## 1
Amino acid sequence: MELTAIKDGFDHVTKKQKLSSSKAQEVFDLIDKEMKQTLQKLQSYNGCESQVDCKSSLAELKVKLKDLAPLSQLESTQKELNLALSKYPKILEKSFIPDISKAYRNIDFDTHTINEIIGSHFYRQGLFEVGDCFISETEESESVAAMKSQFQELFRIVEAMKHRNLEPALNWVVTNSDKLKPNGSDILLKLHSLQFVEIVKGNRERALQYSKTCLAPFASNYMAEIQKLMGSLLWTGRLEYSPYSHLLSPAIWDKVTGELTRQFCNLLGQSYKSPLSLTLAAGIQGLPPLLKFMNVMAGKRQEWQSMKQLPVPVELNHEFQFHSIFVCPVSKEQSTEENPPMLMSCGHVLCKQSITKMSKNGTKAFKCPYCPSDVDSAQCRPLVF
């Protein structure tokens, strides 16, 4: 919506500019025409009466120019252009507020932690030289630099997969199989499936032998997936024209690469996505409501600096939600370890402090705010999401 308003405002300015320019050119052409005609007359005069004729022609030109009123003709279109130009910056300011300082608080950052996040971000992006330079200039410990070798290995695996080389990925999964099993990961089967399909493209016997060696161990748990792969053997050399052509989709490779990257980061104790990228993206999404709130509450800047919770609800997309959040429907406060959600006997949930308050510190039963049931606080149990 905001970008649409900006585009419409820009189109309006452009339209007015073209009209103003067209009108100016029209007026200039008329002036030029009258002046050229007068000049031709002046050049044609001869004899003693030429001076009188010249004065007469110049006077006539003056009258024509006055009747033409070029300034009056240009004034209206120029005013419309100036009005459009004056409104456009306001549209931009409304959509892109330059002063974001109102929406953040001055807090003490842990410089070491921030440097670790930035350094690891460079390594995650494959910017190893930039990461080394940053770590060197910030004089951070080797704990950050140790990430370099780990992410270098990941990038070697991913780069090989881009060229349809699965050997580094298979070696890494086999080496870490004991750590991957508790996560219920089937990444090894998916890698073997990709390799099998690559072989089926041109060699049926080799593909059959590969299935016996590498796919058979998964038959007891993944029979349906393996049966589909076996069916593709009938289309060796022409798989792209078969009912199994979807097995050749680059999207499958991208999905498996993403899953392997996720498993790799998980074993390192790192998040799948860069914390720096997520923080910036979430901050950008949460900035507009905070800016709007602070513009409304401009006179209460000091209160904003001391608040323990955000003063307004900030809705973030699903990718920024990493754990369940419960807000008590009575107190409207988010649950904490000290004030956990409690499941009541009727099946509804309130926070502990609300139950304590409504039950007069557990001395009496109370009505559930959502149903007519009587609730005994002693029967309420902590609810873990």
## 2
Amino acid sequence: MTSPLRAFLPATERALFQRIARAQSEGRAPSLTAAVARDGEPVWTAVRPSPEGGGPGVDVQYRIGSITKTFTAVLVMRLRDEGLLDLQDPLDQYLPGTDAGKATIAQLLCHSAGLSAETPSPWWERSSASLRPTLPDVLGGKPHKHPAGRRFHYSNPGYTVLGALIEAVRDAPWGDVFRREILEPLAMTRTSLEPQAPCAEGWAVHPWADVLLPEPVEDLGLMAPAGQLWSTAGDLCRFAALFTEGDERVLNAASVREMCTPSVPAEAGEWDSTYGLGLQIIRRDGRTLVGHGGSLPGFVAGLWVGVEDGIAASVLANATSGPLPSVVATELVRIVAEAEPRIPEPWRPLQEVDRDLVELTGPWYWGTYAFGLRLLPGRVLSLAPLAGPGRRSRFTAEPDGTWMGENGYYAGETLRVVRHRDGSVRHLDLGSFVFTREPYEPEAGVPGGVDEEGWRGLSE
């Protein structure tokens, strides 16, 4: 079953459906639903088995587990953007008295605060939230397993603490803030804290026999910001559009890029996977994807976005284990990206010409390394090696006439145009490095000077 909107080619739709059908069959899930969006627009949805066979339809809610964490992280970033907190602030500046108080907000967001992975016993996903009525009950007596800031250590209690932080700063329940600041602006009408019919039933599938066991559904209480939410595949793709270009109603593009930037070192041997601010970041098939996986007893979920391709895919299933939705979702992104590559925007010349900027473009040399400086739309400068790998960055204009590195090696570094007294360009100063029009140009003020005899051959 597919949505009425058929923006993909029939062969692409068949490949997508074949992949989720195989995932449901081989993963032995009672049902599996998926959706794909491109450039923020929903394009394709499907469910296996079909409603005609007794399975749920595409509008049915599933529990999404830890994908909830990304919603919580967006709320924290909104607080930062409003100037109500700084990511480098320690937690106890806003929530005094917790055993996690010395950790910074950024460390909590990227799971580098060193907190324990889970709450004290019993297993919080399958037990009543009444057993953990306060933050000390969630954190336990000794919540730190590692020094803060040293390594990635995934922590469910860490996101409970972030939920409490949001409540303290907003002076409102986390669920109310979540509905008001994310669900309503994005028109996510099928996402909620509690299940809203129609919703799938969660099942455990016996590992050695084709039989089922119903899983309990617990309200997570204080742990809600770490994994409470219910949603549909289509609603999740609507949320995923936020991570392709930002949405001023929820979070601007600059803050979205910050969330999508690696914040912790990858574990040894796992160089293709790391974590940003509330988002997992992986490399698959030569492309970078951001998103999150999720699971709770009876449910598994995956939401992944190929930012460069503008493609988002979500996969949900009502089984405790088996179909690996995160793997399937990344493959759905790949299928679309390879079968129907994005058509580039048409090239158009600039409408206004800044001759001083045009004068800066062309080859520049750092020592003998050749670089090219290009002028991009929006008064953006791009510096990159003319051949091979090397340091490359984009630069945006600052009010004082300098340029600030946006990404790459020179992110946060200042590019200055140094001129002669007559106004002509002498050289570029980039983080103290001198870039000249000719290699080691004598008149450009290269530190250490340039040999007076100039270039020469090697004497025998």
## 3
Amino acid sequence: MDQVGETTARALLRRLAVEQAECRVPSLTAAIVREGRLAWFGARGFSGEGDSGVPTLDTQYRLGSITKSLVATVVMRLRDEGRLDLLDPLAKHLPDTPFGEVNIAQLLSHTGGLTAEPPTGWWERTAGLPSGELLARFGPEHAKHRPGRRFHYSNVGFALLGELVTRLRGVPWLRAVQQEVLDPLGMSATTERPRAPHATGYAVHPWADVVLPEPEHDHAAMAPAGQLWSTTADLARWAAFVAGDTGGVLSPATLAEMREPATVDDGDAWTSGYGLGLQLTRHAGRRLAGHTGSMPGFLATVWADPADQVGVLYMANTTSGLTYSLPTDLLDILDEHEPRLPQPWRPAPADPALLALTGLWHWGPKPYSLRLLPDCGLALTPVGGAGRASRFVPQDDGTWLGLDGYYAGETLRVAADHLDINTFIFTRDPYDPKAPVPGGVTDWHA
């Protein structure tokens, strides 16, 4: 363990202890991950009836909806193998549902418009139905919004994705998750049902210091929405994965695609959103990806910042009551006591032909700077900061592909006296009369 310093550890533990005591949580564990390694672990409370011991790294808790991110990872693997396209309508793979027009990407991002909960008893507190019986209960009335119209969280959507994985892989969804995600990442303590040692899920009385054990069931066809149990140690490995240590399970590009906002909250500036199977949030300059989870008697959250290679998580055996800010408070403490130092700058070799491209360019009268990046990419940025900025990477045919910003996915072509980005012409001089479009402009005059 690349441990944090003693002062930092004490501050982190105090924040955890205050949460456990003031929110009356039977037990609470938390961890910090830095650069793929566990940097800090803390725990308070008791995990079960008659258990006075503090939970350990190996004590299991329910993951709840963090399960969805694991299922989504297998779906993305299927996409990368060419077994499906994210724009495939569900009917192509699951023709026996009334939601055939919803596509795979919409299910992953909760924008398919499906009902949040299945047409059963309260599924989190009752035994589940087999897939065929659950599918037979769905009708057109369970589509609540036009596909793509809005974010509407749907546990049903991930039950359908679990069935999709089962049919395309030819094995139960959980076996696919086990073989393709858990085993390669070394998450051997993540299981379908609890195994010892595990915490008991409790509801804490709102007006008295007494607890009530919560039920635990096999949720069958709804299991992909929130079935799994795991440990702090395993969830720390998952935090490292989301931060970018993929262990070969996904390509870095596919994981980055999962972290891209597919939908965001409706506000003046977005603070939370959803990607492809991953929740997103912004905090203190960080762009965090991960997921929250809740099931009867349990709460869990994992967030990771790929830019800083840091992750944070907690697990608790209570139905409700924790403060939303606990994980980001822990990150704030880490930043206060042990801010990450930037890597030392070092000179890097530059292709003379690329070096000659750098400097000032103009889109009409607007000046832009073009600089060479350490990985041989190019960054086109408006002088003064306001405007369309993008990075570009070289392609085998001599063109450049936009990575982000307005020109994401667009092609940059380099000519002798101008740059052409999908018909937008950049020249060394403002409105160079020799350059194409607009070209041939009259002289500047007062």
